[in-house]
Amino acid sequence: PVLPSAKMAALIRSARVFQRMPLALCLRPGLSARYRQLGNGVAAQHRSGSWTSFCRFLNSNVHLRALATEQKTSANDEGSSAVRAKQSMQFDWALNKLDSSVRRTGRITKTLLSKIFHDICRTGFPSGNQALLLLRSCGSLLPEMQLPERTNFAHRIWDKLQELGAVYDVSHYNALLKVYLQNEHKFSPTDFLAKMESANVQPNRVTFQRLITSYCNEGDIEGASKILGFMKSKDLPITEVVFNSLVTGHARAGDMESAEGILTVMSGAGIEPGPDTYVALLNAYAEKGDIENVKQTLEKVEKTDASLMDRDLMQIIFSLAKSGYPQYVQDIVERMRHDRGYIPDAMNLCLSLITQGLEETAFQVLKTFPTFQSENQNGDSLDLGNFFIRHCINLDKPMEKLCHFCEGLKEANLHSTPFQFALHCALDARKTEMSIELMTIMQKKDLPIRPHYFWPVLAQHQKEKNVQGTIEVLKAMQNLGIEPDVETYANYVQSSFDSVEVARTQLEENGCLVNTIGFYASELRTEALNGHLGNVYSMLSSPTNPAVDLSTFRGSLILGFKRSQDIDFFAKITELLYKDERYCQNSPGPTEVVGYFLYNLIDSMSDSEVQAKEEHLRQYFHQLNKMDIVIPATIYRGIRNLLDAYHVPELIKDVIVLVNEQDKLTAADLPKGSEAKIAALETRLAELKMENKPIGESLKQLILLLCGTENMQKALEVKAQYESDMAIGGYAALINLCCRHDNAEEAMNLKQEVDRKDSSVTLDTNKYLALVRVLAKHGKVEDAILILKEMKEKDVAQRENTITSFFHILNAVAMKGEADTVKQLHESIVNLGLAKPTANLCSPLIGVHLDQGNLPAALDAIIDCHKKYGQMPRLHDVLCKLVDQGDTDLLQKAMDFVNQERGEMTMLYDLFFAFLQSGKYKEARKIIETPGLRARPGRLQWFADKCTATNQVEALENMVEMTQKLFECDRDQMYYYLLRLFKENNDWRKADALWTKMQEENVIPRERTLRLLAEILKTNGQEIPFEVPEIWYEDAARPTPSAPLNQAVQTKAADLPVVSASDYQRRLLILCKKKNIQEAHDIFVEAEKKGLVFSSAAYSSFLNTLLANGLLEEAMDVKTKVETRIKGFTLNDAANSLLIITQVRRDNLKDAVSTLKEMLQANQVPSQLAVARLVQGLASKGDVEKIQSVEQLMENMAQPINLSRMLFINNLVLAHIKNDNIDTAVEYVEPFYIPGDNSSQLQATSMSYVFRKVLEENHEEAIDKLSAMAERLAKHFEVYKPVTDLFLQYMDLDKTEDAKFLLQRCPAISEQKISLVSFITKTSQKPGQSHKIIGLLDLMKDFPEKEIAYSYLMKCYALDNDVVSAKALYEKVKDENVTPDELFLKRFAVLLKISGESLPFTEPPESFKFYADKLKQEKTAAAADEN
User: Fold this and answer.
1) Which of 586 and 1277 is assigned the larger pLDDT?
2) How far is it, in rounded angstroms, from Cα 32 to Cα 254?
3) Between 81-105 and 1007-1019, two packed helices, what is the crossing angle to 10 degrees?
4) How far apart are CA 1312 and CA 1307, in angstroms?
5) According to the model, what pLDDT value does residue 1227 have?
6) What residues does 934 pair with on adjacent strands?
């Protein structure tokens, strides 16, 4: 049945999508003749005149195309594995970073783009996809940059990447064209085509479209017409984009009548004018200042199917302002609807206007930002306009304008502190003069000026050691009446001078005030930090010096104490703090001041420091005791705990003597001993009977054993024989056994016997659920509800799988068509509070009606569910059936209900998907084009997955096409969904057409999208029109040991003409990327003989390839020859990193360290892999000093590479062990794990690497001592990470007995859920590892996450194709009443189907990814609920 048109129209109108009438425009005579054949293409008007270069290129022969194809194909193979691994990782990071920025704000920053460009260049092997990403980012996505600067940046990227070996195809030239158009860059289309011709690259439809746009932007209709004629001759389709360009072209040629007539031509060609066409016409009017026609056209558009969004109106505003008609901007501003996404679009408009020098218009737009956006949930005002102020600052706009804008924002209540934020931006941009001028203005406005406002400027002078600059800033502060505080002087002033005395002298000479408390306190800090305790004591004891609270210099004083060996001044200063009231003004008393000081002193030291200074501290405490200094008992307890943790118990008695006599120490102050648990042994049943002793416990064990073997008959007989001695645990096992065997009658009888014995007994959750399931299945609803009530009364603990179990119980009843029974059970479960009424739990209430085809009842059930529980389960299924049946009344009822309860956006998406599912695409389009609608990625993915699973190609194609202009829609993701489906259907033609469509839409594809498209084309023997990114893993980055060049893999080189240095260079780069090392070397030798010189980048690429394949001698020989050709030639970052790796492999560690130092001196950045291999190599030689030296070098790097500190810690431990200094190794690493405030402890994460190495080498002494350390940390400090790491290494190396004994000594290992689950997850990734997970579960009978463990164990069996073990696991899961997740069942089902066996359950219908994502979401939701 088809929906009646009248009712459907009413339904669409209810979604606020207006029905529009087509706009008919008149053509002037002659215009239709020019484009009369556009219905089947374009036959452009041919005028006299030659266009030789253009025609010659368009008619270029097929040979050039084949040659270009061969060149691109040969360039697809990448060179160095290690470099490609880093390159791929960087591209993913760059794409995600740029994608996030564009989707969130609609723009990117120059800083971010420059950083990505620099990182890509540093790898030495830029890919075509990386080049495409950078080029496409140089246009309108950079609104904060001037247009020429954007174009120059694009040219710099183009030239540099081409120099580094990037191979460009037509998509790159199209991207460059797009950048030219967006940046209004004037260029010659014929020269551009000639450039493509010289590169053997053929243009495509997108190229011609953009060249037409270029001509039309200049008003050159004749040039555009010639390209149209060529497109017609080649049967290339003419799209709406071409017509839009023609509208602009006629308008800029001064022929507005022809521009208007293009719309009629479009209709005649079967293309209805869309929003972009009307925007082109509106911009044409705006450029002429014709506001009346702008208004009339906007009114006409409202009556058509084209819907203009706020971002379309913003283009008109920009055109009006740029063309010199800012007086009309307000007329357009008033038409804004403030759709979703208005704010980021309007921000970008403002930035572009400011960049173009139209900041007054930008400010006019800024003031239209909706007011509700400027308040948070508490009603407090938030600040709008930060971006506006910052951009004005960055562009050095005049101070008068800046103040005008700040005052305007303040008056309009858009910004609470505009002047303060402007100052922040000026300081951040290091604009000192502007900052001082702003502070002066702020002071005149009675706005506060704080000392820390000057810190950024002072920090810059401090970094540059600019003493005069520091003095000038202090004088400026003085002129403003701002007195620097102690933080300012200590952190930003004192370090600029050679000493405290020099600082005081120079500041006084320049008229700066130094007789202040702040400056005096900073002097105290500086002297203390330098360890000059004598000077500190003199300053503190001088009665003329001002009173300073201890808190202002306590930290510096403690550091001075630790650096000094002078015990006398140590004690004298402490006595002064105790007896001089000036230093304890804000504290309860002197005992607390000194007590906390001593505690902070000990707490700031590591255990090795305390142990090293033990004698000094003892003397210090004795002197304090002689000075009659006492501390409170409470503080003593803290110090005692610290000293006990540092393993210096002897020092505690030296602190006890300082405790105030008035404080009594009790036994509670002494360390507590650890307790041990004793387990009782059980005796067998026969022995107990012979001795006439109670047999209850043994009987229970016998019952459990029988239940384990599924021997229900025998178990019931034993129960009958010893009924008087039966324990409750035995009954519980029997009940579960009967439920498994579907024996509802016997299960209920046993439950009643338990109640008679002891009605207060509570069974296990799973046993209650099993009872409810079997009773509901056999129609004993009242008994099932009684069990549910008992669960509530006895407060039975709920588990994670409880809701899933309830769902399966209800669904089983629903499949039998018993609606009343489902409702009764569901209401009981929810009303008793046994489970939350989730959508999944409520779905059987609807499913029972859907299965019977009762749609009104199903909809009523949904409405009832929402009223009661706030859920709308299976709504999509109901809507689809209503659309299919044409029941508009019921559909209208459903939509009204959803709109009222969930809002308009949810209702629109529900209706959109229902129309798509039912093939009603026209109605779906009207829905998705509703103004203000924004992308919901989760919902779009859900429908895409559904289309893929059911092979609904047409529905998915329409969804992707319809969401093109949907706000925040990830277009690459949408195209990926389509490609995934095309791959399933092996439809390469549609995939190829999709590639062109992506270029037209200017989509930047992710690497996975390109790989998928390439796979489809390659499988079908088609040409791949782009460079294919590859996946590289760490193992691939490990080339084979060095071998002679003649043993390298040889492949025939691309048959390219070699006539010049550039030809040789191009061929060398292609061979490097194909890893044809012998031929590449031959090319290099031949070029050397002819005296040809390549670029530095080409030589670097060749050296990278040699080093990546371990050819050290050959690489050094090439480097020596290149250095004679190019003065000052050096290896780049990537080559030097590979050199380090190769030197380490050759055991040339000394050379590797030297290479690293040379890199850092040249400001190069080594790769993480290179540093890691070097440190590991040094550890294998026991070279502790060199490891520490490398660590210091990496810490001093200007640009850190995020190395884990554990790299150095673990390898230092291994180095000590290599030198047989095992005690030293333990003493070094143990402090990192002991709880405390030492920041270094935060770096310690895992010792798995150390444990692995010593276990593999079977170093027994090291194993014993490291194991003792791990157990000590666990027992004394409750730090379980090391002992857990050791346990898991035992398991991974199949040392099960060692793991078992360790677990017995440290039972808390079994509670480390995160580490254990992580081990299971990692283990399940490789085949043949199932025995490790089984071994772990055997050792831990009460494993905390058994459901997760079983799921990953099933994954192992699936990898191994072990059907027998998988079936045994499935039976075990059922026996233990563990509810398997859907991923478990999906893996098991697929394994059974592959083996040709029947399934004992219904296979979950969705994909593996669907269920994996579902599990992740459930875990995330559970974690959120816990939080």
Assistant:
1) 1277
2) 18
3) 120
4) 10
5) 85
6) 967
| Res 810 pLDDT > 90 | no
Residue (of 1190, 1136, 1187) closest to 1166 by Cα position: 1136
DSSP state, 692?
T
For residues 461 and 497, what is the distance between their CA atoms, to the nearest angstrom?
11
- Our CA angle for 91, 1064, 1103, nearest 5°, is 50
First to last CA, the chain: 50
pLDDT reading at 146 higher than 90: yes
Backbone phi, then psi, for 934, in 5-degree steps? -125, 160
532 Ramachandran zone, left/alpha/beta (phi>0; psi -120 to 50): beta
As given in the structure block, the two tokens for residue 46 are: 């041919």
Fill in the amino acid letter for 1285: D
User: Which residues are within 8 A (CB) of 840 and not within 5 positions of it... i.e. 6 or more apart?
Assistant: 803, 804, 807, 873
In which band, very low, low, confident or very high, does the pLDDT at 194 lie, cut at 50, 70 and 90? very high
- What does pLDDT average to over the chain? 79
Q: Compute the chain's Rg from CA coordinates.
A: 39
How far is residue 120's CA from residue 126's CA, in Å, rounded to a whole number?
6
Query: Whole-structure pTM over 0.70, yes or no?
Result: no
pLDDT in tens, 1070-1091: 778 777 788 888 888 888 877 7
What's at 258, amino acid-wise? S
The first and second tokens of residue 304, run together, are: 């058509």
Q: What is the pLDDT confidence band of residue 706, given thresholds at 50, 70 and 90?
A: low
Find the mean pLDDT for residues 764-785. Answer: 82
Mean pLDDT across the stretch 221-236?
88
Contact 108, 102 (CB under 8 A): yes
Fill in the amino acid letter for 139: G
The answer to whether residues 959 and 944 touch, using CB atoms and an 8 Å cutoff, is yes
Distances (CA, A) of 1425 to 807, 869, 1416, 1417: 20, 18, 14, 12
pLDDT band at 686 (very low <50, low <70, confident <90, very high): low
Rounded to whole angstroms, the Cα distance separating 1152 from 1140 reads: 5
Asked if residues 361 and 370 have their Cβ atoms less than 8 Å apart, the reply is: no
**What are the beta bridge partners of residue 659?**
631
CB 355, CB 395: distance < 8 Å: yes
Calculate the dihedral angle through the C-alpha atoms of 893, 896, 901, 903, rounding to the nearest 10 degrees.
150
Please list the residues that pair with 375 across neighbouring strands. 381
Q: If pLDDT is split at 50, 70 and 90, which confidence band does 847 have? A: confident
In whole angstroms, what is the distance from residue 602 CA to residue 610 CA?
Answer: 8
Inter-CA distances, 908 with 16, 826, 930, Å = 10, 30, 8
CA dihedral angle for residue 1222, residue 1223, residue 1225, residue 1226, rounded to 10 degrees: 120
How many whole angstroms from its chain centre is CA 22? 46
CA distance 1038 to 238: 51
Distance CA 845, CA 810 (A): 8
Q: Report d(CA 1373, CA 1363) in Å as an integer.
A: 15
CA–CA distances in Å: residue 588 to residues 594, 628, 629, 636, 662 = 11, 18, 16, 17, 16
Alpha helices (H) in 328-398, listed in sequence order = 329-333, 342-355, 359-366, 386-394
Give alpha helix (H) positions in 490-647.
500-509, 517-529, 533-541, 554-563, 567-579, 590-603, 607-612, 614-626, 633-645
In the structure encoding, which two tokens stand for residue 594, read together?
């000194």
In this prediction, residue 1312 carries a pLDDT of 86
In Å, what is the CA distance from 463 to each residue of 168, 456, 458, 459, 496? 43, 11, 9, 6, 8
CA distance linking residue 995 with residue 979, whole number of Å: 10
CA dihedral 1080, 1086, 1087, 1091 (to 10 degrees): 160
| Residue range 51-66, pLDDT digits in tens | 333 333 333 332 333 3
In this model, does residue 1235 exceed pLDDT 90? no
1051 CB-side CA count, 13 A = 11
